Amino acid sequence: MYEHTNLVPGRREVTVEVHRPTPLAPLPSAPVAPVQPGTIPAVTSIVLPDGRVVTGYSLEPAKPEPVAAKPPVSRAAVNIALGGIGFGAVCGGLFLLTAFITALTALITQLITLAAVIFGGWVAVQVFSASGHGSGTTVNIRKAVFKRNHFHR
Questions:
Q1: Contact between residue 43 and residue 57 where contact means Cβ atoms under 8 Å apart
Q2: Helix, strand, or coil here: 122?
């Protein structure tokens, strides 16, 4: 570390400290040595059907490590888990059934309302069109005769 003074005309003096990092010593490394296999595999030659010869080492396939035996699962734990899944399925099904019934009720209500509006409109057209046109049938009630609940003219 050393100090440097900046002398520039018209400016005040500034002292600057410069820090130099100290390099670290390299870590000792182990020498790398090639490792020879325990036994040298034999060279194998194979003749292909078209007459070519392929030569190489025959290697045994890697054997997977045996799988550790799983611990037994308690029968009660399985029953509790299945019961929870069943309960969740029943609750979800009841929720969907309730939603379906609600939607069906709303649909039926709307259809009944639509039918009432259409029928009411048809009745209104019949009532208002009969009085305005001469094509309808006019019955004079004063001249009509009622016999045994039958209407006669």
A1: yes
A2: helix
